[in-house]
Prior knowledge:
This protein is α/β, with parallel strands linked by helices. It is built from 10 helices and 10 strands. The longest helix has 17 residues, at 118-134. It binds adenosine-2'-5'-diphosphate (A2P). This is Aldo/keto reductase. It holds the Pfam family Aldo_ket_red.
Amino acid sequence: MKVYKLKNGVTVPQVGFGTWQIKEGELAFNAVSTALEVGYRHIDTAAVYGNEVSVGKAINQSNLKREEIFVTSKLWNSDRGYEETLKAFEVSLKKLNLEYMDMYLLHWPANAKQFDNWRDINASSWKSLEKLYEEGKVKAIGVSNFMREHLEALLPTATIKPMVNQIEFHPGFMQEDTIALCEKESILIEAWSPLGSGKMLDNEVLIAIAKKYNVSVAQLCIRWVLQKGHLPLPKSVTPERIKNNLDVYGFIISDEDVNRIDALPYIGGSGLNPSEVEF
Ligand code: A2P
């Protein structure tokens, strides 16, 4: 599969398999096993998804070598802070039953609504990620759901800068301000919910454009994310859809149609605003 190169030279398969909301147990095991069988080489999980054991089992039981698969997990909010972060990383690694992680992310920024010292909290969690990276326990480190204000506070405190920022991104939810900063800092954008959690699939403009290329709206959205230079993380538990979502290299969306998708009216995201959520 085609890859993106992170600023530290590490390569990441361009389409990742998202596992948010895929329940621990057979469902997660089967979904990840199917994803690996049909060609995904990048699996994205998180401590809070509660499915690391089954995700790890599917990875370990596949016929692939460990180094062929890029595995990401994330620090949950209740584990913020220097020591806590180091411990939580080990717990995730153990659940996954892996020797190393390819990437570890801070899942959500501590924000100003929750904490007066949100800047310090994020900076101290980040220090642990730097340590894990320096020790070689993880090949890349980054953040998730960091908006411009959170990045602007974190970057001056960081010795090693985040290599990715995983945010909600899909047609109708363009996150221009945060993305402009990330592009300036060479931070790769990973897009969670590239299909808007499924709500973009009945959009008339997207349906018409998808028809033109003889693809599904899901394929169109995923391909659009790629052409924007970002890394899509589609999620599905349905084998045909898992396969369909990876089949995005057989067509190219014209600049004109990319512009039409870019220009869709603001639709909004999931409602989880990183500057305000309190969890
Ligand atoms: P399911 O998991 O039941 O297959 P997102 O990645 O934006 O969060 O969207 C995930 C949602 O979109 C899930 O409800 C998933 O359903 C659905 N979905 C994923 N891929 C497709 C597809 N190719 N066609 C239709 N629906 C899809």
